[in-house]
Amino acid sequence: MSFLRAIGFMFLCVVVPVGALLASNPDAFAQWIGSTLGIEFTRGNLAVAFLLLTGICLKIDLTIRRRHQLPAAEKA
């Protein structure tokens, strides 16, 4: 459990699979999102959205890690 907390739940479960999906076929994925939302969605927009998702996941992972480390720091 501490290993998963160290590498980050969100990073492992969200960012890695989405990154692999986007790397495999970014044009088709951007076209699918654009047709689903009804707006023009380019590869650049896709990259910005992925970076935003990565930032949110990093913030969540750091919050989880800090909450876990706080009791250990208070005992020391």
Structural description of this entry:
The protein is mainly α. The protein has one domain. It has 4 helices and no strands. The chain has helices spanning 2-7, 9-24, 26-37, 43-75. The radius of gyration is 17 Å and the shape is elongated. The two termini are 21 Å apart. 4% of the residues are buried.
Short description:
The chain has 76 residues and is an all-alpha fold.
> What is the averaged pLDDT score?
83
Number of H- or I-type helical stretches: 4
Structural class: mainly alpha
Supply the number of structural domains.
1
Radius of gyration: 17 Å
Q: Count the beta strands.
A: 0
Low-confidence stretches: none
Helical proportion, percent range: over 70%
Largest sheet: none
Strand proportion, as a percent range, falls in under 5%
Query: Per the principal axes of the C-alpha atoms, what is the gross shape?
Result: elongated
Calculate the terminal CA-CA distance, rounded to whole Å: 21 Å
Instruction: Spell out the helices and strands N to C.
Output: HHHH
Transmembrane segments: 46-64
Keywords: Membrane, Transmembrane, Transmembrane helix
